[in-house]
Design a protein that fits this description.
A: 2 domains, six-stranded mixed beta sheet, four-stranded antiparallel beta sheet, 10 helices, about 35% helix, globular, B: mainly alpha, ABC transporter involved in vitamin B12 uptake, BtuC
Chain lengths: ~290, ~350
Amino acid sequence: MTTLSEAPVPTGEKILELKDVSKSFGSVIALRDISLHVEAGSVTCVLGDNGAGKSTLIKTLSGVHEPSTGTYEVLRKPVRLSSPRDALALGIATVYQDLATVPLMSVWRNFFLGSEPTTGFGPLRRLDVKKAKQIARDELLRMGIDIRDVDQPVGTLSGGERQAVAIARAVYFGAKVLILDEPTSALGVKQSGVVLKYIVQAKERGVAVIFITHNPHHAYLVGDRFFLLNRGRMMENWTRDEVDLDSLVKAMAGGAELEALAHELESLGGAAASAAEEVADVVSHPTRGEDTR
Amino acid sequence: MATMPASPAAPSSDERLARTGPATRIMRRPEFGAAIGAIVVFVLFALVDSTGKFASLDGIARWTDSAATIGIVAVAVALLMIGGEFDLSAGVMIGTTGLVLGLLVTEVGLGIWPAILLTFVFAAAVGAMNGWLVVKTRLPSFIVTLATFFSLQGINLGVTKLITGTVRVAGIDRGAGFDSARAVFATDLWEPYRFRIAVIWWIAFTVIATWLLTRTQFGNWIFAVGGDANAARNSGVPVHRTKIFLFMGTAMSAALVGIMTALRLRSVQAGQGVGQEFTFIIAAVVGGCLLTGGFGSAIGATVGASIIGMAFIGIAFAGWNTDWSFLFLGLILFMAVMVNTLISRRASAGATK
């Protein structure tokens, strides 16, 4: 298999691609003919509402599910991933929203969990604690996060910092593709800003970031390419130049469907008509809408 | 692009303004509450002591005798609990392995040393079976090992009666190599106080377990599988293997105590060890292990075992009826968990979510 961690992939190179991938579970078709590609040193946003198929897409990308049909290519060569370990070995790392770190363990122990540096040999092989702490501190600093004490439990960090630790860890261990599952959805405004900053920093270090979210504002801040997922299908594929925030928000809010509905209601007249006008107004000026999450 | 809200770095440094002093650091350690408790219990029983011996080397030799056998298994049980699992079969394993050793020597005619080796292999197999059943069935380890507990209890009685016609296996001292094995596992040291050699094993166990837990890769995995098995798996930790090893550890530590007991008494009762499983868990919990896993220490379990040993001997030395010792255990358990919870809440106040 091709290993991404062997040589640096030049920025802009197509690093990972799904071609007409479908995934069905029994009679349920979760993904249908998904085509998607990711370039090194860029942030690819996958937007979708609940039930759009985001989780299935993440699990397919990270090796949990194999596609039912279609091909999964890494550096233009088809691969078959049968477990997350396979994906990791290829340099594809996934940071799950709540399942990334162990809260009771210290920052440095979390940082090296599963790939601990050791010293000595035979029965005396032990953790290289000094080195581990040093690297954890340095790597977090490189991501712009200043952890004063890497001995403190991760549970004492804020949600954004926890995500940052998980991201820094993935980047340090040679991830060339970083899949982030709703990293900002549980966070407040400031903490989301912290995480978005790390996304940009990972990108600037040449990592291809796949940012899965239902928040068009967050996506628009950092994204280079936007895929819109709805009911298991890829609805849109925009580059940054082709789209503005309004259309992203509108697309996410189900704008077209809402507008059609508003027109229908207007033709009925009466109270429904005035409500429909309001809806149409909100849809066309999404920044005034409250619930953009 | 990527415009950030103004001063994105500011909030993160603000949050860390509250510095943690060295006192808070010590209080956050899992064994802190137990250490205070041990001092209190020691002073208490030294005060009510009617023999004048409790605080002397004589007295220490007495309570470390009972604490050592509890401590050896409690340390392994603590590692397992940190790994997020229970082993209720650790008590009955003492009897089972003693009987296995006894039967291998008296019925099969093996020498003591080969019999000891086979006993450890047997214990490792039972532990591996416990662990395998837990990770494969995904049933709570409480239930799986409870089933093992009762099964072994039945087998112990049934097989012993079937083979010997009684409920005990006697005559272990007839085996070849008994004296050398006794010198390693069941002798006394330091005349005239007569400390048990089990105390040395106990201390060695504590040191090794502490090193394993805090300074090795495997130790990191123990904390991880108990703290959050999903996150551990996502990070590439072999969760199943780690848990199975921990179950093998408790079974083999129980086997060590079973072998010690058999060599010391030269015979084994079929009911040996039954009821002790909770003593081990109490020692680990008093020592600061969280019932939910992911937190605790081996030293804590050792301190917990010391408290239990001091209580058992202290009650006798005070001239009280020893029937009361279980009441004392119950109270200690409750108070220790209360204190541990309060301390950890206070030490991490405002920090945890």
